[in-house]
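Single-chain item
Fold in C-alpha cell form
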Amino acid sequence: MFCSGPPDTYYENGVFQAKLRFPSDYPLSPPKMTFTCEMFHPNIYPDGRVCISILHAPGDDPTGYECAAERWSPVQSVEKILLSVLSMLAEPNVESAANIAAAKMYRDDRQQFEKYVKRTVQDSLGLVEKTSQEQTKK
C-alpha cells in the first residue's frame, strides 16, 4: 500500500510504501505496519516498523505509559490504523520514540529535521539521485 504525506506537514507530497501484515489471530491481535521505504520519523524504527499505541497488543501496558483504551482492540479498523499513522506523521510523539536520533533532532534542531525529511519525501518520489556507493549496496 502507499501512504500520502499529510498536507501542511514535513511529509507533505511524499508517497511512502508500507505493508500492513495481519496475524493469524486477527482481529484479536493487532496487525503490524512497516514502511518499506526509508522513513525518518521519531515513531518509526530505523527498519521501518511503526510504533504507535493502536498497534500495540491489547490490555494494560507493562511500562504504564499507555492506557489500555489507547492500545489495540478487536473493534479497531484498518481505516482507524491508517488515520492514526497519518496523525502520527503530522504530530510525532517524541516522548515515546522508536527512532531516538529522529526524536532528538525533531526536538532540538527542527531545521535539520526538516532537511532530512525533505530528502525522504524527494526519495519517495524518485527525485533523489543515488550515489554510486548507495546503488551498489542494493
